[in-house]
């Protein structure tokens, strides 16, 4: 029995090459076309992989031909960017993929959901049998363990997620936080949406164009505030998100100082993603104020990535243990099955092949 | 036997310290379950030690500086066991274990376990006064630990340098709420301790009374400033650390004076 994985990913091909292989084949079609006993297709924006079990060896070219958009194009016409893993290497690869170790952003969790979806889809179509079932169930277990026992998924890596993560580190529950979005740019909107998704309900939007403020407020479920009135809001809000096109600083120590005296026991988190900056950097030195500009947010994202990379060795160790254990259990299972076949053929135990 | 119990208890706290240090070094920081178990076992052994000592003395075992330090370490563990899980501040264990280890380690290696001939039966008011005050010290110690955690988290947020521990520390507002609660608990218990001191039926040394009231005023001032929002949370956290350092120094002074002028 051959267990193998053939695929193309961001490691081996650029997006224009990857897209030629995405969405053209299902697990069922591959199983029937190349004669696999079990098959599963994992297709995401960063990879297209086929996991399969077969009685005879199936070449990488055969799988590539199934995955290709134009079936008449010969795979020999160019160098295939495909990789191939077999048996133990295949198990290890899947465990790494499911745990996010093989992802473009190390430790991202989206791949876990995509792998589950691919498994469900293949299972529903009947392309998954006992081997792939056991393999994927174990992969999901490993991925969960890696996330629980290491910091591989810790730390945010995009502007919106960094802002949300920091806000949660300051305020804990965001449902009681008041947020003011100053400037109605695209990044502001994404960040505001991320904050709303984490429970923010009191969201105010202010912009030089009040119509644009109304539009954004409506889109994210907040309310518009006149631009002339935005500074006074700093008495009430907990989070300020600014991204205006102003050439000079809109918020300085002098403006903020009298308002801070009235809210001494409440922190103020300011995310300034404008270039040039809307908030005077000296504001960060004020007590209870945490100011993050675009560079510091990037720096936090980079630190998170470094932290995640530091966890790779710990994650690999967990995966290695599971790979050994899984391969052993499969070998024992195969050994038992072959003994049963021998007994059945000798008439000791009249088992039918399907029962094996 | 009681000494071995204390050594075993100290080893438990040392294990929690070493485990935390190791995890910090490797960057895989998951001390919660191990630390809670190690501190829990250490606490059981502490309790067994104090129980044996108490039975031997026929009174609450707070008769010399050694016992005072062990009782204080026990109080810190007790408050942690009550507060840590309740406020989901499990990481507090990583900070509690070193303090308890230092208190117990210091008590064990210094020659302060002077056995006094206890020739008079224990005075229940005096025992209540001493034990209540020490449990209050335990709450102040935990407020101090929460203060350290607050300052650590605050510093990382201010400087934008986030270490692995950042993601395991509780949010600033939760820590500040815990500090406030611990201060109130400590203050309430300490007030009870001081008031009960006046019912012992014996004149208390003036220096002890002055020191105890000075500490009470210090914590009352911190709480008042917190209540009236005169102080920023960062300053309250810093004052918790200063307050507990003062409290420890005064405890030393009070116990030392008490040993010079033993009371029944």
Question: Summary?
Answer:
Chain A has 356 residues and is α/β, with parallel strands linked by helices. Chain A has helices spanning 15-18, 27-34, 60-67, 87-98, 110-124, 130-149, 159-171, 186-197, 210-220, 253-261, 294-310, 312-346; strands at residues 2-9, 38-43, 47-54, 83-86, 178-182, 202-206, 223-225, 239-242, 268-272, 289-293.
Question: Which key features would you list for this structure?
Answer:
heterodimer; A: 356 residues; alpha/beta; 6-stranded parallel β-sheet; 4-stranded antiparallel β-sheet; 12 helices; 10 strands; B: 264 residues; mainly alpha; 8 helices
Description:
The complex is a heterodimer of chains A (356) and B (264). By secondary structure, chain A is α/β, with parallel strands linked by helices. Chain A is 46% helix and 15% strand. Chain A is built from 12 helices and 10 strands. Chain A has helices at 15-18, 27-34, 60-67, 87-98, 110-124, 130-149, 159-171, 186-197, 210-220, 253-261, 294-310, 312-346; strands spanning 2-9, 38-43, 47-54, 83-86, 178-182, 202-206, 223-225, 239-242, 268-272, 289-293. Chain A is elongated. Chain B is mainly α and 264 residues long. Chain B is built from 8 helices and no strands. The longest helix of chain B is centred in the middle third of the chain and has 36 residues, at 124-159. Chain B is globular and about 55 Å long. Chains A and B meet through helix 7 and helix 11 of A and helix 5, helix 6 and helix 8 of B.
